[in-house]
Amino acid sequence: MAKTYCKILGIAMLVAGVAGFAMPRLMGFHLTLVHNLIHLATGALATYFGFAGAYGGAVNFCRIFGVVYALVALLGFVAPGLLSTILGHPGLSAADLMADNVFHVVVAASSLAAGFLGSPGPAA
User: Fold this and answer.
1) Residue 52: Cβ within 10 Å count
2) How far is residue 80 CA from its own chain's centroid?
3) Which helix (H) or strand (E) segment is 34 a member of?
4) What is the separation, in whole angstroms, between the first and last Cα of the chain?
5) What pTM was estimated for this model as a whole?
6) 86-103: string of b/e by CB count within 10 Å (b at 16+)?
7) Cα dihedral across residues 57, 12, 8, 109: positive or negative
């Protein structure tokens, strides 16, 4: 499950990273240069683990990525000004970041599920 999830997540993040340059308000998100570069970097990592990496690497990626995205989501709800500054959009409120925050929660939950609830992987 983790490798399949990484394949899907990786491709989606790469597409979002590229699309964000042309459409910075894509689907209500606040996509900046920093945000797009983060999507491209994480998309490249996820794609690697999905297609070429070992199963254990994909599991660990999902777990770590899930925790990181959960922290980003929490930061978006608790300190939206700080998160928006980090992402290159200073001064946004939690309401302004709602689409981003909900997306971060969904990605965190699905990543953690893929990392912890998936099949144990191929037999050693």
Assistant:
1) 10
2) 17
3) helix 33-51
4) 16
5) 0.88
6) bbebeebebebbeebbeb
7) positive
pLDDT tens digit string along 11-70?
A: 999 999 999 999 988 888 888 999 999 999 999 999 999 999 999 999 999 999 999 999
For residue 118, name the pLDDT band (cuts at 50, 70, 90): confident
Is there a contact between 16 and 30 (Cβ–Cβ < 8 Å)? no
45: tokens are 């990592």
pLDDT tens digits along 96-105: 889 999 999 9
CB 31 within 8 A of CB 71: no
- For residue 29, give both structure tokens: 């998100």
